[in-house]
Structure of Peptidase M14 carboxypeptidase A domain-containing protein:
Amino acid sequence: YTDKVASAHPDGIKFFVDWHAFGHIILMPYGGNCSLRVANYDRQMELARQTTAIIESVAGSKYSQLPVKMSAQNKIAPNSPSRASPSELEQNIAQALYDLETNTADLKVALRPLQFVSAREVRTT
């Protein structure tokens, strides 16, 4: 799928977000494990609630939110020698998403013209 997206943009892609949901659940990318919570857990859950509200207002679909019980570092860099904290890449991705998500009014306007085609593709109308 990413090859298809990349080939459609021969000048390169500056930023790519692949939003995931399982069974109408927004899965948070850095949720910790069953006995620990990341420091910004409440902020993550608030952003997830805002995201679900935007999706419902645009597409009418109702979602709930859950943290993934595996760190983003384990998912993005499974062979990393340190699992104590997110890598620089993860921090950069998280910051970019945070910057995008903190301006929810603009995000809502940007999402409105999108038509959700499938779990793997978003097409502009």
